[in-house]
Structure formats: C-alpha cells, structure tokens
Design goal:
The protein has one domain (8-260): NAD(P)-binding Rossmann-like Domain (Rossmann fold), CATH 3.40.50.720. Helix content is 46%, strand content 14%. The protein is built from nine helices and seven strands, in the order βαβαβαβαβαβαααβα. A seven-stranded parallel sheet has the order 3-2-1-4-5-6-7, with helices on both faces. The longest helix has 28 residues, at 100-127. It is globular, with a radius of gyration of 19 Å. The structure holds nicotinamide-adenine-dinucleotide. Nicotinamide-adenine-dinucleotide binds next to helix 1 and helix 6.
C-alpha cells in the first residue's frame, strides 16, 4: 500500500461500515481525514474512535453551501485537501416505478453530489500540484439488476463521470478513478440478512465466483491504493472489488451442455 503521509483526504458517506473502513485505511497509510456525512451521531462516534487526524463534519452532498463549509473546515484544520473519496449514496429506488422526484434525488446524492464536490476542489488540487479522486461505483452500474433503476443508473453515471473528469483534469495532475464493489458486508446487507454474514456469503456465492461476500476492508484497500502514488499512472480506471462478479456472464456451460445433450 502507498504512503499517504502529509496528505489530506475528504471521505463522503463516511459514517457507515464501508466509508469508515476507507477512512481507517487512509489514516493507516498516513493521511489526515475529514469525514463528511449526514449521519451525525455515527460519524462523530467513528471519528472519536479513530482518534487523532480524523474529524467529522456534517455535510449533505446535495447542498452546495454544506460542501463549501466542509472544504473550508478541512483546509483550516489540516491545511489543504489532496484526496476526495466519494462514497455517499442513497438506495432510494422503486425500480421502473421510481417517481421523477425520487429519480432526481437519487441522482443528486449519488452522482451530482460527488461531481460538485470534485468541481469545488479542483482549484485546491491545482494549487497543491495535483490530487486524487476516487468515486464509488458498483456492479449495479455495469449490469441491470431487476428491481433497481435510479441507483443503478446513478452508478453507471459515476463510471462515465470518472472517465470525463479524468480526461478533463489529467493535465492538472489530478487522477480520477473508481472502485466497483460487489456485494460487500455493510449496514444494508447486515440489515437484510439479520446480521447473518454466513447467510449473506451463501447467497453472494451464487453470483460471485470467489464464493463469498466482500469485506469493507477489501474495498478500502483498493481506494487507498488508488489514492496513493503507487497508482501514479492510473487515471480513468475502475477497479472491480467484486470477487469476479463482473468477469462472468449468465451462461453456465456446466449446467447447459448436459441440457443441450438432452440430459
Ligand atoms: N453494500 C454493498 O454491497 C455495496 C455494493 C456496491 C457498491 N456499494 C457502494 O458503496 C458505498 C457505501 O455503501 P453502503 O452499503 O455502505 O451504504 P450506506 O447506506 O451504509 O452508506 C452510505 C452513506 O452515505 C451517507 N449519505 C446518504 N445521503 C447522503 C447525503 N445526502 N450527503 C452525505 N452523506 C449521505 C449515509 O448517511 C451513509 O453513511 C455506496 O456508494 C454504495 O453505492 C455498496
């Protein structure tokens, strides 16, 4: 893992499992980190647990003034910003029944919020001679999952926003990449499975060739790598952290060839 000593990061959506592990990994590599999230109580608790060099700022990524305040507080506490990790997301989604209002809300939080955060940090990164942006996309941005609409579309948008920003800002020494987690042990999956990780892994094994659910630390490790100089010639890229999910299609030759042969 690369050395992030002397670097300052802002991590949005930092108040739950995946975001908190990303903060932990960046801090572990030597960075100072501002956690930005609307979940105040959990955010403040996690920042307290992680200790020196980690602060929490209540920040709604759909509110421009809140983003400005978060950046200003980070600059004043840590002297600048070098890394932005966009994790904040809403799962608000009614599939094909999603209303216009919910569609716009979902896009605003998941896609536009991260974009505006990056836009507002551009001059800061230029001033500091470069920067790294890591966006959190998803397997949901690459294939359709029946039942999902705005979440999936927002994640597909994040993948292409990553391409567009990397093309626009490469000349400024700003690298823009994404990670695409598969099913990852997180608040949502813990809740859905009744906190049963074995059960979650058993179900994940159906679509994840590695036969299990991912750990939040595994997403965090990919983010910390992309944030570091070890990824110095990587921009506009996506790292799938999905146990092989995106490498396979629906075809199961092992089941289908016997069917073809009439057995
Ligand atoms: N859990 C998975 O299996 C999985 C799979 C693929 C991708 N992801 C992605 O990983 C990231 C974390 O997912 P998670 O499952 O831990 O989700 P989560 O809901 O537990 O965390 C999302 C965080 O974003 C915050 N947030 C929501 N709206 C916000 C706003 N307007 N402003 C600021 N913060 C806001 C929430 O308070 C929360 O802390 C998301 O980007 C998600 O899309 C998760």
């Amino acid at each position: 893992m690369g050395d992030l000593s002397g670097k300052v990061a802002i991590v949005t959506g930092a108040s739950t499992l995946i975001g908190a592990k990303i903060v932990d990994a960046l801090k572990g590599a030597g960075a100072e980190v501002m956690m930005a999230d609307i979940a105040e109580e959990d955010g403040a608790r996690i920042a307290g647990e992680l200790g020196d060099g980690v602060l929490f700022k209540t920040t709604d990524v759909s509110d421009d003034a809140a983003i400005d305040a978060c950046i200003a507080e980070t600059q004043s506490a840590f002297g600048g910003v070098d890394i932005l990790v966009n994790v904040a997301a809403t799962y608000l989604d009614e599939g094909p029944q999603t209303s216009r209002e919910d569609f716009l809300t979902g896009l605003n939080v998941n896609l536009v919020g991260g974009f505006i955060f990056a836009q507002k940090l551009h001059s800061e990164f230029v001033k500091r001679g470069g920067g790294a942006i890591i966006n959190t996309a998803s397997i949901s941005g690459k294939v359709a999952q029946p039942g999902r609409m705005v979440y999936a579309v927002s994640k597909a948008g994040i993948l292409h926003m990553t391409h567009c920003l990397s093309a626009a800002w490469a000349k400024d020494g700003i690298r823009v990449n994404s990670v695409s987690p598969g099913w990852t042990w997180s608040n949502v999956i813990s809740m859905l499975s009744g906190e049963n990780k074995d059960q979650a892994s058993k179900v994940a094994a159906i679509t994840h060739p590695m036969g299990r659910i991912g750990e939040p630390e595994e997403v965090a490790n990919a983010v910390a790598f992309l944030a570091s100089d070890k990824a110095s010639f990587i921009s506009g890229a996506d790292i799938p952290v999905d146990g092989g999910y995106s490498a396979i299609g629906p075809e199961r030759l092992d089941d289908m060839v016997p069917m073809l042969q009439g057995s």
